[in-house]
Fold this protein.
Amino acid sequence: MRSRLGVITIIATVGVVISTALVSTGCWLLGGLIGMLIPFVWALVFGALISPTDPVAVLFALKQVKVPKALESTMTGESLFNDDVGVVLFTVVLAAISLVGEGFDPRHIGELFLLEAVGGGPLGLATSYLAYRAIDDYPVEVLISLALVTGLYALPSKPHMSGLIAVVMAVC
């Protein structure tokens, strides 16, 4: 999966953004057609929430169908990262909604997106490397890995980084 990280990242981010835009627009238009006027920003929240695919379903489907290993690792990685991108989009859209009344600044939203999306990755890689280098006993490594994932999910939330991205990067 590491060798395909660039492709996985592009597919996960662009795919979820496009899916969010399509789902949001469809929800907004459908709501208008049936007389339920939904503000487009709330349709965006719904789109960000619904767009990512379920990694468990993707992994199950890949086990049922024999696909080349490279495609399987790409699809597996994409299904893990697209949840993260969906959470980041959801967070950013909610932040944008909360800032509309008090001076909406697109630059602030861009900074929040970059911090959420990009900030968790290096943190996950660094902590997993430290944990890997610290212990050389397999049973202890398993326990450290579980503790790392549990603690790593909560750690990035204070500086507004994505805990999901940090965990996925740590287990890669």
Q: What stands out?
A: The first helix runs from residue 5 to 33. The chain has a mean pLDDT of 80. The CA atoms of residues 30 and 114 lie 32 Å apart. The chain has seven helices and no strands.
